[in-house]
Design a protein that fits this description.
About 35% of the residues lie in helices and about 20% in strands. It is of the alpha+beta class. Among the domains are: about 100 residues, Winged helix-like DNA-binding domain superfamily/Winged helix DNA-binding domain (Arc Repressor Mutant, subunit A, Orthogonal Bundle); about 190 residues, 2-Layer Sandwich (BirA Bifunctional Protein, domain 2), CATH 3.30.930. Strand 9, helix 11 and strand 10 form a beta-alpha-beta unit. The radius of gyration is 33 Å and the shape is elongated. About 35% of the residues are buried. The mean pLDDT is about 90. Its main location: cytoplasm. Belongs to the class-II aminoacyl-tRNA synthetase family. Phe-tRNA synthetase alpha subunit type 2 subfamily. Its cofactor is Mg(2+). Keywords: Aminoacyl-tRNA synthetase, ATP-binding, Cytoplasm, Ligase, Magnesium, Metal-binding, Nucleotide-binding, Protein biosynthesis.
Length: about 500
C-alpha cells in the first residue's frame, strides 16, 4: 500500500489501544497539527483509523485578572478597608474608605459595582456601610482567581462565568480530536506501507520542466479546521442609536449637536435649577478643573439671573436662595443633553427659531450614579423638543406613543412627576419583556415660563429626555445593561445578538 508521507507518519504514530490527540501525534511526527488533522481524516476515509471528536473548555486569566489575583479583588479590598474604618458599625465617608483601600481609576467603579452585588454592604449618599456578617474569605470569585493562578481545576462554574463577564478570565473552547488505529490499519502496518512522495502545490518550475506529469499531488481536505476569525461589527447600542435617529428624522425632527463639557449656565441655570439644588452637587455631576466659560451672552445671563432671583411674570417669585455668576460659568460634564436644547432654543447655536420647530439629539451624558443593572456613569440620552402654538400634554403623550410603536413598545405608562423646569411633568415606564417589571424609560413635560421667557421663546415647548439603554433593554430583553455597555460587557452576547429591525 502506498500512502502520502504524512499519512504514513500518522499511521505509524497512532495506537490501536490508546486514543492519541492531534497534538500528541503532531509532537510525535514533527508535523504541523493541521497537517496531522488532514492526514487523519484521509486515513479515516480509507478505514485505517477512527477519529473521535470532543469539546474541551479551559480558562485563563487576563492581565487584569492576574493583577487582582495578586492585589485582591477591588470589592474585597473596599470591604476590608470599610471594616477597618468602622463601617460595620456606622456609615463612613466613601472617599475615606476608597483612599484607604488604595483603589485608583477604574478600580473604584468596579469595586462599587460589585460591593452591593456580593452582599458586602451598601453605598448611598456618599457613605459606605459594611455588613459585619460578610466573609471575604469565602468570596467564590477570589477563590476561582487563586485556583486559576495555581493551575488548579475550578468546580464553581458560576464563579468562572462571573470572572469571564468581568473580563478577568478568558473562556476558551476548542475541539479535541483523538485518533485510534482500526483493525484494517493494524493489518496495513503489518503488511507494510510505502511512503509516496507527494507535493502540495503546483509551481511554475514544475510547469516549465514538465515535472508535474510525474509527481503525486496531496489531496486537499476541504473539511479541515480553519482558524476562527472574529470580524468587527457596529455595537448594538450604536445600531439602536442610529435607528432612533432615523425614526425621529422620519417624524420631522432635526438633530442637535454641542459640547460634552459645558457651563453650569447651559446645563442647569437655563433650566431654572436653583444653584443649591442637591442634583447640582459633586455627588451627582462631574465638575472639571478648567477655566470658567467666558462665551455666555450677557443679556441672556442677566435674564436667567433675574428669573432665579425674582421669578418671571407678575406672579413670579423666584428662588429664595443664592445665585452667582461664578457658579454659572463653571464647567461640568453635562448630566443631560437638555443643555443642547437651551443653546438651540435661545438662538445662541443656530440663530433665532420660529415655531413650529422640532429638534432632537442622541448623545452621551455623564452622572455620578451608583452602578447597577439599570444605571451607568455614562449613558445615551434621547433628547427632544417641539416648539409650537397651543401644545398640550396630549400632544406629548401622542408623540411618545408614535415613537415607541416603531420599536414594538405599545404598553407605555405615564406617572406624574416634579421637575424644576417643566410643568406639568411626567415619567414614562415600559414593561420589561422578560422580568415583567416596570422600567423607567424617560422624563418629560412642558417647559415652564421661567425657562422659556429668559430664552426669548413666547410659545409652548414640550420636551423629553429618554434613556437609549433602557429602550435597548425593552427591545432585546436584557436585564443588566452592563452586559452590553461598559468595562464588564459580554463580548459573546454582543457578537451573537441578532439585530432587530
Amino acid at each position: 500500500m502506498r500512502l502520502p508521507e504524512s499519512q504514513v507518519a500518522v499511521l505509524e504514530a497512532a495506537s490501536a489501544t490508546d486514543e492519541r490527540t492531534i497534538e500528541q501525534l503532531s509532537e510525535a511526527t514533527g508535523l504541523k497539527p493541521e497537517t496531522v488533522t488532514g492526514a487523519a481524516f484521509d486515513l479515516e476515509d480509507a478505514g485505517l483509523v477512527t477519529v473521535a471528536t470532543a469539546e474541551a473548555v479551559s480558562h485563563a486569566l487576563t492581565a487584569e485578572g492576574e493583577t487582582y489575583a495578586d492585589a485582591g479583588l477591588p470589592e474585597v479590598r473596599l470591604y476590608r478597608a470599610a471594616v477597618d474604618a468602622g463601617a460595620d458599625a456606622d456609615p463612613v465617608p466613601m472617599g475615606e474608605v476608597i483612599g484607604a483601600a488604595a483603589l485608583d481609576g477604574p478600580e473604584v467603579d468596579i469595586a462599587l459595582a460589585n460591593y452591593a452585588r456580593k452582599g458586602y454592604g451598601e453605598v448611598a449618599s456618599g457613605e459606605i456601610r459594611a455588613d459585619p456578617e460578610a466573609d471575604p474569605e469565602a468570596d467564590s470569585e477570589a477563590a476561582a482567581l487563586a485556583a486559576l493562578v495555581a493551575d488548579e481545576a475550578v468546580a464553581d462554574d458560576d464563579a468562572l462565568d462571573q470572572l469571564v463577564r468581568r473580563g478577568l478570565a478568558d473562556r476558551n473552547e476548542r475541539t479535541v480530536r483523538s485518533v485510534t488505529l482500526t483493525d484494517e490499519g493494524v493489518t496495513a502496518l503489518m503488511e507494510g506501507i510505502e511512503a509516496a512522495e507527494t507535493v502540495d502545490r503546483l509551481t511554475p518550475e514544475m510547469l516549465t520542466s514538465g515535472e508535474w506529469r510525474d509527481v503525486e499531488f496531496t489531496p486537499y481536505n476541504v473539511e479541515a479546521d480553519a482558524p476562527e476569525r472574529q470580524g468587527g461589527k457596529v455595537h448594538i447600542l450604536r445600531q439602536t442609536a442610529e435607528r432612533v435617529k432615523d425614526t425621529l428624522v422620519g417624524m420631522g425632527f432635526r438633530e442637535m449637536d454641542g459640547p460634552h463639557a459645558d457651563s453650569e449656565f447651559w446645563i442647569n441655570d437655563c433650566l431654572f435649577m436653583p444653584q443649591d439644588h442637591p442634583a447640582r452637587t459633586h455627588w451627582d455631576q462631574f465638575a472639571l478643573d478648567v477655566a470658567p466659560m467666558a462665551d455666555i451672552p450677557e443679556d441672556l445671563l442677566e435674564r436667567v439671573r433675574s428669573a432665579h432671583l425674582d421669578g418671571v411674570g407678575d406672579d413670579g417669585d423666584g428662588y429664595h436662595s443664592p445665585w452667582t455668576e461664578e457658579v454659572a460659568r463653571e464647567i461640568d460634564l453635562r448630566g443631560h443633553t437638555t443643555s443642547l436644547s437651551m443653546r438651540y432654543l435661545s438662538g445662541h447655536e443656530i440663530g433665532d427659531l420660529e415655531p413650529p420647530e422640532r429638534f432632537f439629539s442622541v448623545e452621551k451624558v455623564y452622572r455620578n450614579d451608583t452602578l447597577d443593572p439599570t444605571h451607568l456613569l455614562e449613558f445615551f440620552q434621547i433628547e427632544g423638543w417641539v416648539m409650537a402654538e397651543d401644545l398640550s400634554v396630549r400632544d406629548l403623550m401622542g408623540t411618545f406613543e408614535e415613537f415607541y410603536e416603531q420599536f414594538g413598545i405599545t404598553d407605555l405608562q405615564f406617572k406624574p412627576h416634579y421637575n424644576p423646569y417643566t410643568e406639568p411633568s411626567f415619567e414614562l415606564f415600559g414593561t420589561h419583556p422578560e422580568t415583567g417589571e416596570l422600567i423607567e424609560i424617560g422624563n418629560s413635560g412642558m417647559f415652564r415660563e421661567e425657562v422659556l421667557r429668559p430664552l426669548g421663546v413666547e410659545c409652548d415647548v414640550m420636551a423629553w429626555g429618554l434613556a437609549l439603554e433602557r429602550l435597548l433593554m425593552l427591545m432585546y430583553g436584557f436585564d443588566d445593561i452592563r452586559d452590553v455597555h461598559g468595562t464588564l460587557c459580554d463580548l459573546d452576547l454582543l457578537r451573537e445578538t441578532e439585530v432587530l429591525h
